C-alpha cells in the first residue's frame, strides 16, 4: 500500500485489516513467503494506526472556563508529561 493510499485509509479500516493479518499469521497455515509478506503488511498497518492515534491525540483539546473566560487547552492523559 502506498503512503498516499495509507493516509486515505480510515483508522477503523486499517485496524480491521490488521486484525485479519494477525489472524492469518496466528493460524500458522500460510507459506513462509506469504507469512513474511503478511508480517510486513501488518507492520505497516500498525505504524499507520499508531500515527493516526497520535494525530488525533494531538488534535484533542478541551475547553476550560476559567474566571469567566473560555480557554482552549491541550488534552493530556493522566501520567503523561507534555
Automatic annotation (TrEMBL):
EC number annotated for this UniProt entry: 3.1.11.6
This protein's UniProt keywords: Cytoplasm, Exonuclease, Hydrolase, Nuclease
GO-annotated cellular components: cytosol; exodeoxyribonuclease VII complex
Catalytic activity: Exonucleolytic cleavage in either 5'- to 3'- or 3'- to 5'-direction to yield nucleoside 5'-phosphates
Pfam families noted in UniProt: Exonuc_VII_S (PF02609)
InterPro entries: Exonuc_VII_S, Exonuc_VII_ssu_sf
Subcellular location: Cytoplasm
Root EC class: hydrolase
Gene Ontology biological-process entries: DNA catabolic process
Gene3D superfamilies in the cross-refs: Exonuclease VII, small subunit (1.10.287.1040)
Signal peptide: none
Coiled coil: none
Top-rank lineage group of the source organism: Bacteria
GO molecular function: exodeoxyribonuclease VII activity
Cited HAMAP family: Exonuc_7_S
Quaternary structure (record): Heterooligomer composed of large and small subunits.
Role played: Bidirectionally degrades single-stranded DNA into large acid-insoluble oligonucleotides, which are then degraded further into small acid-soluble oligonucleotides.
NCBIfam families hit by this protein: PRK00977.1-4 (NF002140), xseB (TIGR01280)
Family, as annotated: Belongs to the XseB family.
Protein name: Exodeoxyribonuclease 7 small subunit
